[in-house]
Amino acid sequence: MQFSDVIRKQRAIRDFAHQFIDRTTIERLIGSAILAPSAMNLQPWAFAVVADRQKVDEFAKRAKEWLLTTLSTTSYEPSLRHMLENPNFSVFYHAPALVLVMAKASGTQAAEDCCLAAENFMLAARDEGLGTCWIGFARPWLDLPSIKAELGLPEQYHVVAPIIFGYPKEWPESPGRNPAEIHWLAENTSDYVRGADTVSAGHGGTTKKLSADRGDAGPVKLTVHCRCKKNFEVEYLNYQSILGSQVKCCQCGREKIITQINAEDVWPADARARCA
């Protein structure tokens, strides 16, 4: 799978198939995780793996019971209690496996470095057809000294990312993304566009690469070609704000994120966005 496809197709999975994950696969995913960058190359991470659905379910039950009794003392919203009180709710969603990404020390950037390793793990899993979900809800329980002692983990280790993973029953559709909020801090913002050789953009259908020598500082319009054959126009504050934005077809309702742009589809705007 192309790396750009891995990123675009990554989803949080909470419904898993009953399929075994072998140790070699898990070690390969962790091998990708440790390729993440770290401050001063300290590589402050360690990993713990539970590759047994029954054991994962046992931990989920215990974490849920602990959260029910301590919710008022945590930073979690009190409204989450109704979810915990649901007898069908499992903190780990009956996943076949759980990996804990841990910081071996509490030094500068250790937790952030572990987050980078966790993201590597999740993307590597997606590339191999495995689904993941970061369960921050369970972190306080897993980080209790008594639980770390029970699991044989060093007390000074800090659980950063509890990630469930397994083969998904299905891959859900993307919930979409809001346009990126970008603050261009250089005096001449058009340099950001001129500096690139090409820009990839588009809303489904056929697209092509183009020279990114655009300096539009004011409002522009983008003509979007939807798969339902309907063309519509969307207005942007400037050319730079197009990439990564989400659009919705006014005819079929399809939502997509702009990842490619055709030069002929961008033109100065003098009116509000409308359907063509």
Question: Quick gist of this model?
Answer:
The chain is α+β, with helices and mostly antiparallel strands and 276 residues long. It has helices at 3-9, 23-33, 53-70, 81-84, 110-127, 139-142, 145-151, 190-194, and strands spanning 45-50, 97-103, 131-134, 158-166, 198-199, 210-211, 220-225, 231-236, 246-248, 255-257, 266-268. It has 8 helices and 11 strands.
Q: Can you give a write-up of this model?
A:
The protein has helices at residues 3-9, 23-33, 53-70, 81-84, 110-127, 139-142, 145-151, 190-194; strands spanning 45-50, 97-103, 131-134, 158-166, 198-199, 210-211, 220-225, 231-236, 246-248, 255-257, 266-268. It has 276 residues and is an alpha+beta fold. It has 2 domains: 3-166, NADH Oxidase; 190-268, no CATH class. The strands form 4 sheets. Strands 1-2-4-3 form a 4-stranded antiparallel β-sheet, with helices on both faces. β9 and β10 (255-257) form a beta hairpin. α1 crosses α5 and α2 crosses α5. It is elongated and about 65 Å long. The relative contact order is 0.14.
